[in-house]
Amino acid sequence: MTMKKKFINIIIYIVLTVLMLAFFLPFILLVLNAFKTNAQIIQSPLSLPTGISFDNFMIAMKRMNFVNSFLNSLKIIVFSLVLIVLSSSMSSYYLVRSKAKLSKICFFTLVASMSIPFKQL
User: If DSSP codes are grouped into helix, strand and coil, which group holds residue 73?
Assistant: First the structure.
């Protein structure tokens, strides 16, 4: 590598490092402030927490009703999963066993869509 390419690579790495820090800074502040009390956040939002407090997490769980939300999501997931498995197994059985020309076209189209990578199209 020539000196010019090395210099350009160093500049690129410096710029990318600065951008990475700029993108991760809000997430780091979020994590740091999650373990502080409200008074500590107001007093110094950029400092490290003096003591670890889980009060914010308990308040969020109570206000959000986390258990109820989790159970509702679980019900929706199980119901949709059962419907998807039943409908796909019934339709695939028909597509494979039927002698109609349209079902063969649909079957081979589905097989081709699963075996050919999308970027190749």
Answer: helix
